[in-house]
Inverse folding.
C-alpha cells in the first residue's frame, strides 16, 4: 500500500530514521537517496575519523570504508570516542566500523585493516566516490592527496593539533589540491605531531564533524558552500573561526596541473623525510658517540653516587608530569638563552671540579640537539678555558621506563 | 606605517608565544620579503630557520594578506601597506 503514498525509493523505516534530515532544506528525498547511494572512504580511525565515520553512518551514507592499521590504546580514548575500553588491543578500523553499525545497521561499513601506502591506496580509493583525510601525519597526507587526484576523487581534508584545527576540500570542481597549496613538504623538524604537541578531544571532534558536514554537502549537491578554494581555521583556545580564501588550482601543480609530471604514487616517507605514522619510534643517534650515554650507564652513575648535573630539556608541562630525581628543567627552546647558560655553568662548576652534564628528554631526540647547543655555548667560547663533559641519554625517559624502571610514568 | 601580524598553527611559539602583533615601521609601504626578514631579525628569538628558509617563508606555512592567500597577491614580492594584516599559518598534520 505504501507505494500509493510516495514516489521515491525510501522505505518507511528510512523515512522514519532520517526524518529530521529529510525535512532539512537542501537535503530532501533527493539528498537522502544520494547519501544512501554514496561511498565514502575515511582514512584514519582516530580522533578525526571517529566523528566523521559516526556522523556519516548516522546520516545514512550507504557505504563507508574505514582504513587504519593501528590498534586501540587506552591513551586514545580521551579523543577517539568511537572506540571504548572493551576494544583495547583491537583493530581500530574494526572497532569503529562496529560502532558505526551499532548506530546504523542498515548501511554497509567496511573496515580495512591494511596499512595505507603507495601499494594499497589506489586500490582502496577506487572503490569509493569521496575520500576523507583523517590521518595524523604529513607523509600520509601527501599520499592521500596524490591518490585522490590520480583516481579523480574529491578529498575532504581536516587536521588538528593542540587547540587548533583546519578544514578544506581538495580537488573539487576544478579547485586546488593539497600540492597546489603546499608543493614542498615542510622540513621534518618543523612538523609537530599530536603525540608530541598534544591535542584535545573536542578539537578533533569539531574538525571531524565539519569534515562530515562537507561530505554531506558534497553528496547532497549543496556545492556553493563547499569549502573548496577556502580554508577554515578554528582556534579553540581563542574561540574563533575564520575562513580564508586560498589559491585556485595551480596550472603548474605536479599532480593536478595542466601537464602533470606525477602520474603514479611515489615513496612518501622519503619525500617528506618522515614515516607514515604519528607514533614515535626509536630515535637514531645523530651525534658523535662521545656525546651519548645509555640509560644503563646513567643508572650506574646514580648507583655509584657520582656527582653530575641532570638536565631535562622537555617543555615545562611535560616535566611536571614526571621527572627523574634531582633533575633541572630547562626547556630546549630556552636553552640558548644567556640566563640558562649561566644557570647551567653555576650548577656544573663545583669548587674545584667541573661536573659532567647529562641531558635527558622524552625519547632522546631533543636531548641530542640540546647536547649540540650546549657544547657550542659552553666549550667553544674562547674566553672559557673550562672543558665541560656533555652527554645526552639515549632513548630518554621512555628508555628509562623500558630498560630501568617500568614504574616511571609514560604519557 | 602599522602592520598587523597574526600567527597560528604553532608559529606563535617563535614570536614570544603571542598570536597577534602590531608592528610600527617607517615609510608607507614595505615589500613582504623585507617585512619577513625584519620580523625574523627582530622578533624571532630562537630557531629562525623554523620561519625563513632559502630566502622565503619556509614550506608548510601559508601566508595571507588581509585574509587572502599571498599567491593571489604576488607571493613574497607583494607590497604591504599601512593597516594591512599579514597572517602566517603553519599547516597542521595531526588528527
Ligand atoms: Zn594541485
Amino acid at each position: 500500500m505504501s507505494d500509493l503514498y510516495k514516489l521515491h525509493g525510501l522505505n518507511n523505516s528510512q523515512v522514519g530514521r532520517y526524518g529530521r534530515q529529510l525535512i532539512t532544506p537542501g537535503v530532501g528525498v533527493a539528498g537522502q537517496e544520494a547519501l544512501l547511494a554514496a561511498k565514502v572512504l575515511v582514512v584514519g580511525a582516530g580522533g578525526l575519523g571517529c566523528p566523521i565515520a559516526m556522523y556519516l553512518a548516522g546520516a545514512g551514507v550507504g557505504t563507508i570504508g574505514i582504513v587504519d592499521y593501528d590498534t586501540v590504546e587506552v591513551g586514545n580514548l580521551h579523543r577517539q570516542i568511537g572506540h571504548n575500553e572493551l576494544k583495547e588491543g583491537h583493530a581500530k578500523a574494526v572497532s569503529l566500523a562496529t560502532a558505526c553499525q551499532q548506530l546504523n545497521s542498515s548501511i554497509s561499513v567496511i573496515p580495512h585493516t591494511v596499512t595505507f601506502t603507495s601499494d594499497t591506496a589506489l586500490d582502496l580509493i577506487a572503490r569509493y566516490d569521496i575520500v576523507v583525510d583523517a590521518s595524523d601525519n604529513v607523509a600520509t597526507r601527501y599520499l592521500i592527496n596524490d591518490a585522490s587526484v590520480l583516481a579523480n576523487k574529491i578529498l575532504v581534508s581536516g587536521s588538528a593539533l593542540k587547540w587548533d584545527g583546519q578544514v578544506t576540500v581538495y580537488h573539487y570542481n576544478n579547485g586546488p589540491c593539497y600540492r597546489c597549496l603546499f608543493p614542498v613538504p615542510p622540513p621534518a623538524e618543523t612538523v609537530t605531531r599530536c603525540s608530541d604537541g598534544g591535542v584535545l578531544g573536542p578539537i578533533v571532534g569539531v574538525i571531524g564533524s565539519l569534515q562530515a558536514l562537507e561530505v554531506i554537502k558534497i553528496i547532497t549537491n549543496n556545492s556553493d558552500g563547499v569549502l573548496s578554494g577556502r580554508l577554515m581555521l578554528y582556534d579553540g583556545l581563542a574561540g574563533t573561526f575564520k575562513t580564508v580564501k586560498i589559491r585556485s588550482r595551480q596550472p603548474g601543480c605536479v599532480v593536478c596541473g595542466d601537464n602533470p609530471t606525477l602520474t603514479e604514487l611515489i615513496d612518501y616517507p622519503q619525500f617528506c623525510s618522515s614515516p607514515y605514522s604519528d607514533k614515535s619510534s626509536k630515535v637514531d643517534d645523530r651525534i658523535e658517540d662521545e656525546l651519548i650515554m645509555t640509560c644503563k650507564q646513567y643508572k650506574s652513575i646514580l648507583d655509584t653516587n657520582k656527582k653530575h648535573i641532570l638536565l631535562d630539556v622537555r617543555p615545562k608541562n611535560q616535566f611536571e608530569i614526571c621527572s627523574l630525581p634531582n633533575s633541572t628543567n630547562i626547556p630546549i627552546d630556552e636553552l640558548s638563552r644567556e640566563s640558562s647558560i649561566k644557570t647551567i655553568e653555576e650548577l656544573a662548576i663545583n669548587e674545584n671540579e667541573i661536573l659532567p652534564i647529562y641531558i635527558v628528554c622524552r625519547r632522546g631526540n631533543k636531548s641530542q640537539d640540546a647536547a649540540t647547543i650546549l657544547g657550542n655555548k659552553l666549550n667553544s667560547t674562547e674566553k672559557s678555558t673550562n672543558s665541560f663533559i656533555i652527554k645526552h641519554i639515549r632513548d630518554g625517559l621512555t628508555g628509562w621506563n623500558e630498560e630501568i624502571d617500568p614504574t616511571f610514568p609514560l604519557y | 606605517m602599522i602592520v598587523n601580524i597574526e600567527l597560528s598553527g604553532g608559529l606563535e611559539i617563535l614570536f614570544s608565544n603571542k598570536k597577534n602583533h602590531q608592528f610600527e615601521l617607517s615609510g608607507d609601504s614595505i615589500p613582504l620579503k623585507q617585512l619577513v626578514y625584519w620580523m625574523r631579525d627582530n622578533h624571532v628569538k630562537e630557531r629562525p630557520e623554523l620561519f625563513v628558509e632559502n630566502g622565503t617563508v619556509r614550506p608548510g606555512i601559508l601566508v595571507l594578506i588581509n585574509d587572502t592567500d599571498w599567491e593571489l597577491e604576488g607571493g613574497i614580492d607583494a607590497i604591504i601597506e599601512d593597516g594591512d594584516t599579514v597572517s602566517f599559518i603553519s599547516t597542521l598534520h595531526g588528527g
